[in-house]
Amino acid sequence: MTDRHFGPDDLYGPDDSALDGNAIAGLLHEVFGTEMTTAQTTCAHCGNTALIAEAIAYVRAPGTVIRCRTCTSVLAVVVRKQEMNCVDLSGLTALNAG
Amino acid sequence: MAGTAVRGRLTWQVATVAAVRPETAAVRTIEFEIPGWAGHQAGQHVDIRLTADDGYVAERSYSIASAPGEPLQLTVERLENGEVSPYLTEELRPGDEIEIRGPIGRYFIWDGDDASTPLLLVAGGSGVVPFRSMLRHRARIGSNVPVRLLYSAKTLPDVIYRTELDMAGDGADVVYTLTRKQPPGWAGHSGRVDAALLTEVAWPADRQALAFVCGPTAFVEIVAGELVSLGYPPDRIKTERYGGVGAP
Fold first, then answer.
1. For chain B, what percent of residues have pLDDT higher than 70?
2. Do A22 and B124 touch (CB under 8 A)?
């Protein structure tokens, strides 16, 4: 993994700021107090179940946004303000730590 | 997490730079000394935190380049407009201290316990870093799991760990493809990783291999999609994306 950087990518298609759940493993561990990349999520919109590692993660939004890889609905949002994390899990119907 | 001790909260630790080694013009490997480091698994990463004098904090994730049991090493590529990587690749010196937390992640890991499943590793650019950890781990534990690494780089001088990879041997095949420029007489592959190259290099689907794909997001999407087309079940393809970094 390298420094996040968004620039033109002329050989493998357009630039894309979408990462995956691996990239936010540290943040999620901080929030939940345990390893979460192998936690299973169920999307409240489409019902798809997948590991957090497989979800789409945007780390440069205002806050960290996790989206369903199947329907792209927002699963969760984490916003950090100084030492406090504000967590919105309303896009999930289930979250089971691995 | 069954069968493993539940680790406590992830805490920031002070790491001291023990050594710095250039890999390519833009890439360095940094070895750290961390008192009480818990050890890691091949494929895991760490978070790095840099705090400026004015209190501004920048955090980034980097894959671990060394094998379990070895001192923690990170291999970092300098990005022209990067906020953190120029500091890590140009400023950091032995004896300097930075904050690290980890190891992190239980998804993109290979522990070597399964001796019968072939491995397919597909790397774009510095996506090769976690695979170096896996290959070193494989050698250290004396595993004879057959492994193929397909590594896409822009040019030959951009290939990280080339000397080490060329000596992988013993059931570990390393295949390069150079996307931008090939040296005179280049006998390897040219151009990006596509269906044809994967068909040639990847284990046939009936070998029930485990695939790991790491690189820029668009690279990972293309490779994972092609592997599914070749018959790899999606749950046998583990992916790690690191964004829109220049094409390998």
1. 95
2. no
The residue among B146, B139, B5, B1 whose CA lies nearest residue B69 is: B139
Q: What is the pLDDT of residue A6?
A: 34
Is the CB of B197 inside 8 Å of chain A's CB atoms? no
Q: Which tokens in the block code for residue B72?
A: 């923690």
Q: Which of A16-30, B32-46, B177-191, B215-229 has the lowest mean pLDDT?
A: A16-30
Please tell me the pTM assigned to this model. 0.91
HEC string of chain A equals CCCCCCCCCCCCCCCCCCEEHHHHHHHHHHHHCCCCCCCEEEECCCCCEEEHHHCEEECCCCCEEEECCCCCCEEEEEEEECCEEEEECCCEEEEECC
- Token duo for residue A4: 């996040």
Chain A residue with minimum CA distance to B1: A98
Contact between B46 and B30 (Cβ < 8 Å): no
Q: Which domains does chain B have, with CATH numbers?
A: 13-104 (2.40.30.10), 119-241 (3.40.50.80)
Question: Rounded mean pLDDT of chain B?
Answer: 93
The predicted pLDDT at position B244 comes to: 62
pLDDT, position A17: 76
Closest CB to B243 among A6, A54, A97: A6
Closest CA to B165 of B177, B157, B174: B174
- Can you tell me the distance from the alpha carbon of B84 to that of A6, in angstroms, rounded to the nearest whole number? 14
- Has the ipTM of the complex gone over 0.90? no
Whether chain A has a CB inside 8 Å of the CB on B129: the answer is yes
Enumerate the domain spans of chain A.
19-96
Asked if B218 has any chain A CB less than 8 Å from its own CB, the reply is yes
In terms of C-beta density within 10 A (0-12 exposed, 13-18 middle, 19 or more buried), how is residue B187 classed? exposed
Nearest by CB to residue B106, choosing from A2, A10, A38, is A38
Q: Does B63 touch chain A (CB under 8 A)?
A: yes
Here the tokens at position B166 are 């060329």
